[in-house]
Design brief:
Layout: H1 2-28, H2 40-48, E1 49-57, E2 68-73, E3 79-83, E4 89-96, E5 101-107, E6 110-111, E7 115-117, E8 125-131, H3 135-145
Parallel strand pairs: 1-8
Antiparallel strand pairs: 1-4, 2-3, 2-5, 5-6, 5-7
Length: 146
């Protein structure tokens, strides 16, 4: 009989707190929908800007530490630079969607082929791998473009 009374007493005490908890959650969002992944301000910012990121690799396809990655705005001719870490990664964010850019990397006097970023590209996050090509490949690709 005592266990039955204890169970009844526990239920009587727990019910109001459960009701109050459910009521406070319902008052915040009556539809109980999950919160949005991005706020409206964040979505507007993402619509105005884009980012480019990637990896700089050597001739043997290994990530390069200490390479200088240059991003040149073709309208203003301003260049910003990032230095790769041990994993060879670089990143530039908050780039204008209305501008065109050129991207290249340099290390010990050698430069990668230039990659272009067009304002026509609709992506908000662009991945570019910058590779140092062996000299014989570089010479054949230069003669093929002439």
């Amino acid at each position: 009989m005592n266990t039955r009374l204890a169970t009844l007493l526990t239920l009587a005490l727990a019910a109001p707190s459960t009701f109050l908890c459910a009521q406070s959650m319902a008052s915040k969002d009556p539809t109980n929908r999950p919160s949005p992944m991005y706020s409206k301000a964040e979505k507007k910012r993402m619509a105005r800007f884009r980012m480019v990121h990637g990896v700089v690799k050597d001739v043997h396809d290994n990530p390069m530490k200490g390479a200088l990655v240059n991003l040149k705005n073709l309208k203003t001719n301003q260049t910003v630079t990032d230095i790769t870490q041990a994993d060879g990664k670089y990143s530039f964010d908050e780039l204008s969607r209305e501008q065109d850019y050129e991207l290249s990397a340099s290390f010990n006097g050698k430069t990668t082929p230039v990659k272009k970023l067009s304002h026509f590209d609709p992506q908000s996050s662009i991945m570019r791998i910058l590779s140092f090509v062996p000299p014989e490949q570089d010479a054949t690709s230069a003669s093929a473009t002439k």
